[in-house]
Amino acid sequence: MDELEVRELRYFSAVAEELHFGRAAERLGIAQPPLSRAIRRIESRLGVQLFERDRRGVALTEAGRVLQREAGPALDAMTAAVRRARRAGASERSLVLATKAGASHQLLQRLLEECAAQSDLPPLEVLLCEVGEQAGLLRTGAADVALMHRPVDDLDGFDAEELLTENQVAIVPAAHPLARSVELTLAEVTDVPDLPMARWPRLDGTYPEGPGPEVHTQTDIAQRVALGTCLLLIPASSRAWQWPEHVAVPVVDAPPLTTVLAWPATSTSPQVARIARTAARLAASTEQGPIGMSRETPEPKTPGLQLSPWTPGPKRARS
Amino acid sequence: MDELEVRELRYFSAVAEELHFGRAAERLGIAQPPLSRAIRRIESRLGVQLFERDRRGVALTEAGRVLQREAGPALDAMTAAVRRARRAGASERSLVLATKAGASHQLLQRLLEECAAQSDLPPLEVLLCEVGEQAGLLRTGAADVALMHRPVDDLDGFDAEELLTENQVAIVPAAHPLARSVELTLAEVTDVPDLPMARWPRLDGTYPEGPGPEVHTQTDIAQRVALGTCLLLIPASSRAWQWPEHVAVPVVDAPPLTTVLAWPATSTSPQVARIARTAARLAASTEQGPIGMSRETPEPKTPGLQLSPWTPGPKRARS
DNA sequence: TGCTGTCGATACCGCACAGGTATCACAGGC
DNA sequence: GCCTGTGATACCTGTGCGGTATCGACAGCA
């Protein structure tokens, strides 16, 4: 009389996002009539109206908005439960680590080597993902631990071990005048009229206001920088932006970023605890070691490498 | 191919707790055969063994233990989603406050009066519960806010506003020699041979070791103290233990307890925020006002009220 | 060793409900 | 007016849930 099944909540969630029964049904892989019926049944079972079906479209009611907000975490928890149980039952007891492709390359490599070498550490599977995806992967149980960055990443509900702190560099098109600088300040890289900063989606999927292009994949932004349409700030150790058309210039006063190893606060796995300790140890030794992270900062390419004078690229290169 | 429905997870959870298909089925209100089938179907769908059906009983596998640990939060999130959506759709937009019966009586009363008086505050529904139940009520959406106590209550995943800090009193049988003291120390109330401290269930439902009786309701413990079988420590403002057979004695060096108003960290309701501000304001004014919480501390009843000399009660008065 | 009780698995049946197709009802636009 | 787009309704079919009856395996016991 009063419970919602996972399937039903998924249906609701799809309609709430699309605000269109036909498209939602298509996304769900079912026909539209069963979806309409399902939603009506949900509404009658809960005893509340979830959607306002006006002739000119579908809108969420207040109750619908509340349910939409609650649906995400609830569905995440359900999928996480089965994913984790599955993985616990698998014979191979490896640990899945999610990380932004290209980030913290050196540390990741040492961590992988360490896990392969030490028999008491679980084998590590690396799940490379795009910016901001780690949190969702942890929440749905697709990953056990993740390399994330304070303060930019969403660390809500996670425990984290701080690994290392590093400064940021600006990645600018090699042909742009800014690329000639040995170092830059924040003031110098913001509000450059012909080189706006790229805008990443926020945690809720919306984009901040600004002149720069909306991007959500790393190759996307790398391409744009190479085309000369924008610049961006990244941690110095990141390896994703090393195209010949890119130049990395330290930004001396940009807020430093701390790389952390994060895991769900509910996790009780000793494996996770062991990896966290190991990662912290490696980070500490790496930082002062001969191949220190600080030395990994890409040297700004010499201005002499520039092949052609700066010309602004197309304002918008959307596919 | 790979999702679990809420009903199925409930079935699993019941079997995991009972470790007995027959009893679990009874608890679920279904017959045993469908339950057996459901569990087998779950196992085959997930591709993992969840239970070890030995001839001498049912045991959880490693995967089963993981799923059991994940099941609680996931199911809580699902029920919370529908509860909150339902309440959001109800015409009467009241707020449900959960609190231990008897605790923070004065503050609660002023909060209720304030909500009734101020038209911009929502009407407050009070949900009285037993010790440690508030967290579950918040997690499943049965309550919007709760009065809880730092550091004894489980505040994990909640945001909280500190309201007031108070000292603890020992509630002892009026006939016991300890009742004659004007004040006591922790050392004096622990390890009293004939008056062990009552043991409350921990967050996971198990009981700490010790000589005292296991209790989980307030009337339970009140009765035991009146019978002279144990004592306990409570915050001074609590009103649940005022029987004629009880004497409250301040324990000068017991760690002070802070009453907080807690709510799910995910809550975005402006109502909740408003209540939190109001409660904090009331608590601050009450603390220094004429009817201050500090003055609410029950005066220790005078030793002269004792009617009969101390005789130890029965060691264990279990029903 | 056979009897019995316990407990989970299996067999079989009826019904509820999910999902599909076809169609309707209604608003807007040309 | 007709056409298009959108959600609701009608009707059909198959899956699968839950129920009863029964089996099979093992423990305890005389």
Instruction: Give the CATH superfamily of the largest domain in chain A.
Output: Periplasmic binding protein-like II
Order of helices and strands of chain A: HHHEEHEHEHEEEHHEEEHH
Counting H and I runs of at least 4 residues, what is the number of helices of chain A?
10
Mean pLDDT rating of chain A: 80
Structural class of chain A: alpha+beta
CATH architecture of the largest domain in chain A: 3-Layer(aba) Sandwich
What's the β-strand tally of chain A? 10
Show unreliable segments of chain A.
288-319
Report the biggest beta sheet of chain A as strand number plus sense, adding barrel if it closes: 5 strands, mixed
Q: Taking Cα atoms only, what radius of gyration of chain A do you get, to the nearest Å?
A: 23 Å
Lateral strand order in the biggest sheet of chain A: 4-3-5-10-6
Q: Please state the overall shape of chain A, judged from the principal axes of the Cα atoms.
A: flat
Strand content of the residues of chain A, in percent? 15-25%
Give the largest interface pair and sizes.
A-B, 42 and 42 residues
Secondary-structure map with pairings?
The structure is a homodimer of 319-residue chains.
Chain A: H1 6-18, H2 21-28, H3 32-46, E1 51-54, E2 57-60, H4 62-89, E3 95-100, H5 105-117, E4 124-129, H6 134-139, E5 145-150, E6 158-166, E7 168-173, H7 186-189, H8 218-227, E8 232-235, E9 246-250, E10 257-264, H9 270-288, H10 293-296
Parallel strand pairs in A: 3-4, 3-5
Antiparallel strand pairs in A: 1-2, 5-10, 6-10, 7-8, 7-9
Helix pairs in contact in A: 1-2, 1-4, 5-9
Chain A binds a DNA duplex (30 and 30 nucleotides) through residues 7, 20-22, 30-38, 40-41, 53, 55-58.
